[in-house]
Each structure stands twice: as structure tokens, then as C-alpha cells.
Amino acid sequence: MLIQYIIRRFLSAIPVLFGILLVTFTLARVIPGDPCRAILGEKATQEVCDRFIREKGLDKPIPVQFWVYLNEIARGDFGQSFRYGMPVTRLLIERLPTTVELSLTALLISMLVGIPLGIISAVKHNSWIDVFTMIWANIGVSMPVFWLGLMLMYVFSLALKDTPFWLPPSGRLSAGMSADPFYVVWGWSLSESGLRFALAQFISRLNILNALLTANWALLKDAITHLILPSVALGTIPMALIARITRSSMLEVLGQDYVRTARAKGLPYVKIILKHAFRNSLLPLVTVIGLSLGSLLGGAVLTETIFGLSGVGRTLYDAITARDYGIVQAFTVVIAIFFVILNLIVDISYAYLDPRIRLD
User: Fold this and answer.
1) pLDDT at residue 360, as a whole number
2) Element (H, E) at 94
3) CA distance 293 to 72
4) CA 329 to CA 20: how far, in whole Å?
5) Which of 36, 33, 75 is nearest to 54 (CA)?
6) In whole angstroms, what is the distance from residue 265 CA to residue 194 CA?
């Protein structure tokens, strides 16, 4: 039944992904701007631009271009990047791990801080702790990411530069830090083509995971210290949302009859809060966490730009300004696929958390 549900959800997502691709493909070509001069510069002659347009197939009608692009995608080819002169698939493998690692770390920080704050705020309802927590949650939701990022860089990279609390202001790794891929350390012999090699490259570019797989503890420490500031900046808004949703959901559950019955039976209060109340308040929280991760994957452009990280957000922004259609289309579809998978995981988790829900 679960397998059938997953297959049905993926089949229903195909029209959604097709519509996203169609809208992105069309809008990228009708918005004002000349991809030739965006790539080659304003001094490019008309003759050079005409040749550029013909070579890239941009002189054909949009429906014809879209049909050609669909055929290329069916073969697993996202085309070439105008700006970088390399396959878009290669750029995805290079840039996507940065955003995935940053987003997962930011979400982890958001959950580790936001969930306990929400629980404490609900348990201490209307106390000074509740008021103080919600004030900070409202500040976190309202705080601009770019401002917070700059403030974190100023405090931890400049004001505390001569203290043990110093943190690197930019980049993923320190200069000269060795990050050999795990498949090289393990002695795997992989041909430089195919899905297996692409997957191995993708995993090896997740620095924390690659460091764990190769037992490179210096790399692990360096990768984590470089992720702290951008993850905190990116995770502040989700953290505030998670705290508020946790508090709201916990307050609703704590007023239920079964919670009062558990307290009347003399069960330990901590057990009542964590086992009875918190578990039954997870449904809205899981939804927020899933949507937050999807938003982090697609909206990290400011954080990546401020902290000098070459991820999906920054690459996508540069591609839009340069009219690099291949990158815009491929990265948008990949982010949409992530949203589809996350929504599927959230729906499946509902049935696990609440047995009354069935995957019909």
C-alpha cells in the first residue's frame, strides 16, 4: 500500500514538474534582456550576437526550443551553460552540495533551538519565560538575513578575532585544507562518467559527510566552523517559526482530557510532556519543518552571497542576471523535485505519527 501511494504521488507530480518547467522555460525567454550581450559584454557586435543566437538555437520558435529541451532532458542532458561553458549537470554536482549542506545544518540548528524553546514556552504559558521567548521569536522572524549575516561576521570574525570564539567569515574550507574524495581514499576505481560517478562526486562535495567517511577529523572541524555563521543566519527565521508552531500546538494538546488524565494518574510530568503531549503535537510541526527545508534549499541566495558560498542560490541569481537559460531551468526543476519529495515524506510521516491517518 505504501509503495502504491508513493508511485501514485510521483505520477501526480509529473504534470506539476512539467508545468514548472514550461513556465520557467517561457518566462526566461520573454523577459527583457539579451543573453548574448549579458554573456559576451555590451561591446559585442550584432554579427557576433547573431552567430551566438544561431549556435545556441535561440533563433527558433519557443515551442520548438521547448521540444528540443524536453528531448535532451529525457536523455539526462540539461544542456550547456552559456556563462560557464560546461554542462549544467556538472554545475549541479558542484554547486548543489553546498546548498544542501548549508540548508540541512541551518534546519538542524533551527530544530535544536526552536523545539525546546516552544515546549518551554508552552509549559510556562503566560510566564516571563513565555513572553521573553515569544519576543525573541518575533524578532527572529522579522530580522533580515543579510543584516544578521553581516552582524555575525562583524562580531565573530572581527570583534572576536583574537579570541577562541573567532569564526571564519566566508568560504567552505580554509585555504590549503585537503578534502580528498571518499572514493579515492577508499581506493575505488570509477570511470569518470555515468550515474555512479556523479553520485560519488556529489557525496564527496558534502564536506561534513565526506570527512566522516574518510575519518578526516581536521576537515570535519574546519567544515563545521565554516558552516556555523551562515547556518545561524539562514536558520534564524525557521527557528522562530518552529518555536511559535511548537508552542501553539503544545498549548492545544496540553488542554486535552488525556493529558489531564495522565497527570491525575501521577505520571512523571516530564514523561507527560515528551511522550504524550509533544508526540501528539508533531503533525503541524512536521509540516513546518518540511516546508522550511524546501524554502531553505531554494532561498539561500542572500546567505550564500554574503558568506561567499557558491551554492544553488547564488548560481541561480547569477544565471538569471546573465540570461543563462540552461542553469535557470535545471536548477528550478531540481528545487521543485526537492519540494515534491519533501511533501511526500511529510505526508508519509503523518500516517506514522497518527495511526488514524491512512494513506488512501
Assistant:
1) 56
2) helix 88-123
3) 29
4) 9
5) 36
6) 61
CB-neighbour burial class of residue 337 (10 A; exposed 0-12, middle 13-18, buried 19+) = middle
With cell 544578521, the residue in question is 148
Side-chain half-sphere of 327: how many Cα atoms within 13 Å? 28
- Residues 6 or more apart whose Cβ sits within 8 Å of residue 114: 238, 239, 240, 241, 242, 243, 246
Of 275, 281, 273, nearest to 252 by C-alpha is 281
One-letter amino acid for residue 219 of the chain = L
Question: Residue type for 35, please?
Answer: P
Count of beta carbons in the 10 Å neighbourhood of residue 224: 14
pTM of the model: 0.85
- 157: cell is 570574525
What gap in Å lies between CA 329 and CA 351, rounded to an integer? 34
* DSSP letter (8 states) at residue 310: -
Helices assigned H by DSSP within 186-324 = 194-204, 207-214, 217-254, 257-264, 269-271, 279-280, 282-298, 301-306, 312-321
pLDDT band at 178 (very low <50, low <70, confident <90, very high): confident
